[in-house]
Amino acid sequence: MDMYFCPLYSGSSGNALFCQYGNTRLLIDAGKTGRCIEEALRSINVEPSSIGGLLITHEHSDHIAGAGILARRYHLPIYATTGTWCAMEDKLGKIAPDQRIEIEADRDFQLGDIGVSPFSIPHDAAEPVGFRLYGGNVSIATATDLGCFPETVFHRIKGSDLVLLESNHDPEMLKANPRYSTWLKQRILGDHGHLSNETCSRALLRLIASGTSHIILGHLSGENNTPQLAMDVSTAAVMREGIVPQKDICLQVALRDAVGAVYTIRNNGE
User: Fold this and answer.
1) Which of 30, 116, 199, 239 has the fewest CB atoms within 10 Å distance of its CB?
2) Contact 150, 59 (CB under 8 A)
């Protein structure tokens, strides 16, 4: 069986990612309205009622805005760390006890046909995690909302067939943004903020060397980046190493307000 992945939305204005392997369909985050996410799923021919679980990375609104309504409407179990549950519970509305599942970083679990491996990430949230999802002999990973790219994160996602990797901002655009306070700029630029295009480009070179063949640049800022700029920085980095995008690897950008492509990861070993 093949694994399927689609960034429904990825950006500072909202995040929701879809993954399927076998008979199991999952969402990572639900940072748009319930209606937006339902419409996005149906646009790729997935009925929202077929989703088997919702994995939450952390409690910021661009990751949980639609989580409560989707959980109640479809009786979805929500999987999040204890710290994230404590930080987001009041924001979700009433969630039935059997839908409230606490998980731990570095403690893997099985959700239907998909193996789930949560790992800690450096971000200014209560107890944030990224996820690596396994199906047969393939895996995908999400690594966004990172202030830096430490060895601990690289170790957990290296060798993934597909990685959604944060390419949030251009530092010069951010520093020159008159609408952002000094505090907010420092937060984004800090080690628990968000990855810049340049830091992302260095990280993706390491991932490609580890065997990753699909890189999706995600969680772009709406004010301090553009899809073209993010792509240009990463393209230049891989080209300097003799790697040709769309020939040697798949390198794409996940858009903030448009449903992305459905990626098929072939499970050749089965």
Assistant:
1) 239
2) no
